[in-house]
Amino acid sequence: MAEATLTELRRNVIEETDLSVWEIPQALSDVTDGFLTELYAREIQIDSGVALVALGGYGRSELSPSSDLDLMLVHNDRDDIDSLADRIWYPLWDEGFKLGHSVRSVDQTLRLAATDLETATSLLNARLVTGDFSLVQDLLARNEMQWADQTSDRLDELARNVARRHRLAGEVAFLLEPDLKEGRGGLRDVHAIDWAARAGVQVTVHDRELLDAAYRVLLEARVELHRISGKRGDVLLLEEQDSVAAALGDPDADLLMGRIAAAARRIAYLSDETWRRIDSKSHDPTLENIEVAGLRVIDNEIVIVGDPSSDPLLVLHAAVQASKSGLPLARESLGRLAQRQPDLPDPWPQGARELFVELLRGGPRAIPVIESLDYFEVWSRLLPEWTPNRARPQRNVYHRFTVDRHLLETVAEAARLAHRVPRSDLLLVAALLHDIGKGYPGDHTEVGMRLVGPIASRCGFSERDSLVLTRLVEHHLLLPDVATRRDLDDAQTLRAVAEKVQTVDFLELLAALTEADSIATGPTAWGDWKAHLVQTLTESTADFISSDGTTNRKRRSFVDEHIEGLMAEGETVVEGSGDTVTIVAPDRAGVFSKAAGALALRGLDVLQADAYSSDAGMAVSQFRVAEPDTPVDWNRVTDDVHECLRGHLAIDARIAERARVYRRRTALAAKPAATRVTFDIESATDATIIEVHTEDHIGVLYHLTRTLAEMGLDIRSAKIQTISNEVVDTFYVTGSNGPILEDLHRREISAALRHALMLVE
């Protein structure tokens, strides 16, 4: 009977139902030890002067199902060591294991560890697998002494490494798709604290217990992530969170991510404090006191020496000073606030609102201050409505952060824009509260509107200001939704927005909130094109309001003198440059859809499209496309459009083939987007707006526009918005008699569009 492979042994462990998740890493390490011990005994058969050493996660006996194997063959200056090593490495490579491997003498290893941080730290977690025990014992003892002798330099380098890793990987507690290992508050931070402790940094028993409990939460999630995905990687993607939650016994993914966030917050706080404490020892203590009664600066920390129970504003004074100075609030002071800080009365005492706004005005510097207060559950004493939003995931990839962190990031962006508006205090508070309703059942905007009025009144804002804040929450999605889904040249669009915003001052506040909210949401929520659209809408609406809506505003046509000249020639012309393709052709049904099909074949994503027909029987279609990763070969694009217009390309077949061969963007949402078709006859001038929400596939725009042409509809303009795996296509269309007014006609159009989308899937 053939001996079991390591792959088979590991699979048996992974599939073992009697093992808890916490036991799997040790069990995987044990079977790997056994396999390598037998392999070593069979292939090397040397008892002294050679040893096989486990490093990294394997050295800690924490192998996850898809972990790499980090091994070193250490020796005492043997000439044949390379050939001996091959006898260990090749069987592992043959099984497909990703192997971190090295072959070194004891002296070589120590020399490298003296200058290379990764080698030094890997040895701190090293252990003997098999071979010469005394050789490994000597190596590890000498490395330990070397590590202690280089304490200052090593800790400085380790601190820089931690900071760099945090910048690259982001935060585990607040990212919707966290890196469980490398992120701030992740597993690697606990390892770094352990390494610092080996250099003499004190970690209390209580803190160790806290770290161990939090570490277990993250490690169990990592084990299940590996087991479910079947691949290496430590980023917990949205589509995997439900499965990991179920495997760990959490009722839903939100609860899992809440547990992960709580654990990561604890690790991050203790990690920050550890490195701050180390850094403070290398600097002279700050001698200047803060000119606020009850506060002092001691060892580069803000220390509360007053009594929070007798001075309810002390917490806000401390937070403002911490934000201004960049110094942290001392842990003991935060604990004191947690024990003795009273809830602020309703209404707040005089001066509280001004301090609150001043804290928000700190922008990015205020974020760690507020989060430290929240970690000790002091922030909710000021704002009880915050608690349901703490560590709350947002189940889409449109957002990068949890609700609480998104709100703080929005405040930080709003602080940057505060100079643009006459009432920066209202902007900052609206930024903090615009999504406060997400922690509660129901539509988050409607809930937020109910919450923000009482909050504003409690803070001491006037009834008029409270109403402004409520309206900002009510309309915080207005500008981006209209800008990306409506025709900005249509006077009816401007009229509808103007009726909602009412004044230019409010519009300016809303525009700044929109930008702050979008930037804080994530990279897919804001870019040059969207910024341009929102700015255009804002400026046009401001003009509309300033003129009291009485001006006879004409539609700004994209048809300039150049295009008019092309139309006069009466020939088919296709021009592409920059991010725009323009098609001039005799006015026939299907020109728009065929052009859209040609762009789809070239993998170009359409952002906006406009159409125009002249009385002379010529039509113009103009498409603006998203900038692709590689420069557009416009010659090939225009050739394809010409061929499509001639009917020489099998568009349906070629789009279907492209969809089979190339994967569309990775769908990260937990659930596919549901198809919805809506009609709006109120928000357009002499046209009907058709809005189609559906899952994004190659050729969606082509199939929709072809269907509209087949239904005898003319497309005046189109807006295309893609969010994650969902696309929202908005069409301004007219029938033979103008807008589509009959319910039966609209139902038939809807049925035709839905049928077309079924063919795309």
Task: List the uncertain runs.
Answer: 663-670
Number of domains: 4
Helix content: 40-55%
Average pLDDT, to the nearest integer? 89
Largest sheet: 8 strands, antiparallel
Alpha carbon gyration radius: 32 Å
Notes on the structure:
The chain is α+β, with helices and mostly antiparallel strands. The chain folds into four domains: 6-149, Beta Polymerase, domain 2 (2-Layer Sandwich), CATH 3.30.460; 153-280, Nucleotidyltransferases  domain 2 (Four Helix Bundle (Hemerythrin (Met), subunit A)); 404-556, Hypothetical protein af1432, CATH 1.10.3210; 562-760, no CATH class. Helices cover 53% and strands 12% of the residues. The protein is built from 31 helices and 14 strands. It has an eight-stranded antiparallel beta sheet with strand order 7-8-10-9-13-14-12-11, sandwiched between helices. Helix 4 links the parallel strand 2 (69-75) and strand 3 (99-105). Helix 10 crosses helix 12 (253-280). The protein is globular, with a radius of gyration of 32 Å.
